[in-house]
Amino acid sequence: MFDVLVLGAGPAGLFCALQAASAARSAGRRLTIGVLEKNSGAGRKLLLSGSGRCNLTHTGPAADFYTHYGENGKFLKACLQAFPNTSLTAYFESRGVRLAELENGKVFPESGKSGDVLGVLLRECRESGIEIVHKSPAVALSISQSLFSVKTADRVFAAGSVVIATGGKSYPATGSSGDGYGMAAGLGHRITAPRPALAPVLVKDYLFGGCAGNSLKNSPLFLYRENRIAAKGRGDVLFTHQGLSGPGILDMSRYMKAGDEIRISMTGGSRDENFNREFLSRVSAGGRKKLKAIIASYGLSEAVSVTLLEFCGLSEDAKAAELDSGRRSRLLDALCAMPFIIQSTGGFETAMVTAGGICLAEVNPKTMESHLVPGLFFAGEVLDIDGDTGGYNLQAAFSTGWMAGTGIALRHGNTQIVPSS
Ligand SMILES: Cc1cc2nc3c(=O)[nH]c(=O)nc-3n(C[C@H](O)[C@H](O)[C@H](O)COP(=O)(O)OP(=O)(O)OC[C@H]3O[C@@H](n4cnc5c(N)ncnc54)[C@H](O)[C@@H]3O)c2cc1C
User: What pLDDT, in 10s, does the model give residues 293-315?
Assistant: First the structure.
């Protein structure tokens, strides 16, 4: 029997447990808190995050932080206000993790080790008397007379409040395989169909396989569906062996579907009079120069320049003087809006996060408590929230965890939980 049982020892679950303990302590109460974890260790995905370096959060201004979560970001406004990026960095720095801002506002532990972040969470849990029960996947959740019952393979736990913090469905080998959705649905919650997000894309008839590893910096990106713009963005693009990746593509992947067309400005420019004129002056000044050198003068690698020529039906050694008007027009289009048809977006095995999840209309954004089942809380990626790359997903996990922990302490401050006989 626990006052509070958290399902999932990822960043959201652990931080929720810690905040519940701390807020209750401040109010002069002690809560018994347990965390059930499927794996033999906690925070497996947290350890993988940021390629093992853990991009904990972003330094972006509080006022527009929530705009990095697509249409559902508004739900996070209260959480991000109550526990913003500055509170998160202060929490870890005050516990000995030195943080550094790298790469346009992304915050990492200075040591480059995600284990330092997990280490603090686990140490704090031990010191707060929070019991983590490993190798204990929750398989069923029910409620009777205000008391929750959680079944694992060999035990049944009772609790006054339950937090579903089982994560999404991406990288299932880390333990996050979507279990929370079924348990929430069993208690009447609607689930927005989970789908992979922050995923690379495979491209139909891809010509750029030989450019794998090359990237474009901060390129304008346009997503077209049935010849209409479905989304716009900007960001770095990485060419892979079979398609596209990199932060710009990953961030836009939440909007993409097979059959959509991504148009990428390879040069950063748009196909207007200025660009045309400027390109023509480079070509006429080029004369006997190879076209690939003129294209590379826009900051593109030789491999990418040659592939663009191939796309326009020109050989690698084509000279500036050989450019007829038809090919010139095609080349200008490709430089400003190179089209890529999406064959498929990466599945849950390669997606960094899950879009979709617990329907937000049924969750109180100021406490993370269910509107349908008092005492049931949610935290982290199990919710229908997915953020851009850059530390936004971990910040959401910590902020929703903090909010749920505070909500739980409030509930237990006001309510005496008595097990039914
Ligand atoms: C490769 C990779 C790199 C990433 N890098 C970054 C990054 O640098 N910055 C960033 O902001 N985000 C990053 N993310 C995303 C980020 O890691 C997640 O959004 C975040 O971990 C979500 O936290 P969570 O606690 O909600 O869920 P999770 O971290 O998924 O934790 C859920 C926990 O619940 C457990 N669990 C699941 N089902 C059950 C069950 N039935 N019973 C008991 N326990 C259960 C799981 O084993 C797991 O331990 C990355 C993701 C991946 C895959």
Answer: 999 999 999 999 999 999 999 99
Compute the distance between CA of residue 166 and CA of residue 160 in angstroms, rounded to an integer: 18
Largest CA distance in the chain: 92
**DSSP secondary structure string, 26-92?**
HTT----EEEE-SSSSS-HHHHHGGGGT---EE---HHHHGGGGGGGGGGGHHHHHHS-HHHHHHHH
Q: Which among 19, 45, 53 is the best mutation to test ligand 1's pocket, defined by most ligand atoms within 8 Å of the CB?
A: 45
Residue 261 bridge partners (DSSP): 224, 341
Q: How far apart are CA 192 and CA 348, in angstroms?
A: 16
Distance (angstroms) between ligand 1 centre and the Cα of 244 equals 24
- Cα distance between the two ends of the chain: 13
CA of 404 to the centre of ligand 1 (A): 17
The pLDDT tens digits of the residues spanning 176-193 come to: 999 999 999 999 999 999
Enumerate the domain spans of the chain.
2-196+350-414, 201-345
Looking at ligand 1, which residue's alpha carbon is closest to its atom 53? Answer: 352
* Separation CA 262–CA 246 (nearest Å): 14
What number is the average pLDDT over the span 121-131?
Answer: 98
CA distance 324 to 112: 52
Task: Find, among 247, 238, 244, 279, the residue nearest to 262 by Cα.
Answer: 244
User: Could you tell me the pLDDT band of residue 261, with boundaries at 50, 70 and 90?
Assistant: very high
Euclidean distance between CA atoms 121 and 398, whole angstroms = 11
Give residues (CB < 6 A) around ligand 1: 7-13, 36-39, 44-46, 48-50, 54-55, 137-138, 165-167, 170-171, 175-176, 179, 352-353, 380-381, 391-394, 397
Torsion over CA: 298, 303, 309, 315 (sign)? positive
Rounded to whole angstroms, the Cα distance separating 95 from 109 reads: 12
Q: Please state, rounded to an integer, the average pLDDT across all residues of the chain.
A: 94
Q: What letter would DSSP give residue 153?
A: S
167 Cα: distance to centroid of ligand 1 (angstroms):
5
Choose which residue among 139, 385, 393 to substitute to test ligand 1 binding: the one with the highest number of ligand atoms within 8 A of its C-beta: 393
Could you tell me the two tokens for 397? 């996990």
Q: Which CATH superfamily is domain 2-196+350-414 in?
A: FAD/NAD(P)-binding domain (3.50.50.60)
